[in-house]
């Protein structure tokens, strides 16, 4: 049965290449040409054609040269609009696709970069249920951002993108498919609630000092202390030089997030919990490290470190 289906597909690709050849991913850039652009009349175009036929029959029946001339002019305008719709897509190229960042269940922003050697107008792009119109000016480039629905974490291939237009009169619809050979990474969805990460037993007892702006205490003057840190009034009162100490205990210890500490949970539950801990650490501005099988990540903070950790979680098998 499987061999029969494969032979049927090969036969269809040989006999009907227009129906099957563009369903496979293609390397970028993807350029449209006359062999991959399809044109059909719209509902308005069909009604316009019926009207022209009625006008043609009436003008011939009554030998009305003026009505016949008008019918021919309108027919020529309709035929020209089909050529213009074709030229609106012919030569259009998809140069690259840039993906944003999103967790599973949230839309992922995709930015499609189109290039052209001439200006174009009224072109639309469909990606699933999303549709966006754009035009290309004299610069020859245009960026179009569309949301991509996501459902689960990991690498996902991009779906087909439909490019179409009804420019200029809406009589004909020209369209084509683009299927870029690229995958996007979707971050895991954090769990809705759970316990905080487990800290070492002595983590809360170790005094960690950092330089702040609030006065913590007075201490004996040491050679090299700046003059602005000398407490002159207290020194005069006690008869010895005292310096202001601006060191204060660090209130937010570093989080060490470890895959091995979540034994007894399945892999997806571990990933969801680690994703929640990463989000909390990032929101609180804490330094945090992450240990995953085969890829330990050193401690850090900030958006770049958070994205690196979440991407490592999303890439787990």
Number of separate domains:
3
Task: Strand order, main sheet: write it out.
Answer: 2-10-9-5-6
Question: What string, H for helix and E for strand, traces the elements in order?
Answer: HHEEHHEEEEEEEEEEEHEEEHEEH
Number of helix segments? 7
- Low-pLDDT residue intervals, each spanning 5 or more residues: 202-213
SS content category: alpha+beta
Helix content: 25-40%
Tell me about the largest β-sheet: 5 strands, antiparallel
Broad shape = elongated
Rg over alpha carbons = 33 Å
Question: How is the quaternary structure best described?
Answer: single chain
Instruction: Tell me the β content.
Output: 25-35%
Mean pLDDT: 83
Tell me the distance between the termini: 32 Å
How many β-strand runs? 18
Describe this structure in words.
The chain is 31% helix and 28% strand. It is an alpha+beta fold and 317 residues long. The protein has 3 domains: 23-186, no CATH class; 210-247, no CATH class; 251-314, no CATH class. Helix 3 (43-61) packs antiparallel against helix 4 and helix 6 (267-284) packs antiparallel against helix 7 (303-314).
Key structural traits:
DUF58 domain-containing protein; four-stranded antiparallel β-sheet; alpha+beta; transmembrane helix; 3 domains; five-stranded antiparallel β-sheet; 317 residues; transmembrane; membrane
Give a quick rundown of the structure.
It is built from 7 helices and 18 strands. The protein is α+β, with helices and mostly antiparallel strands and 317 residues long. The chain is elongated.
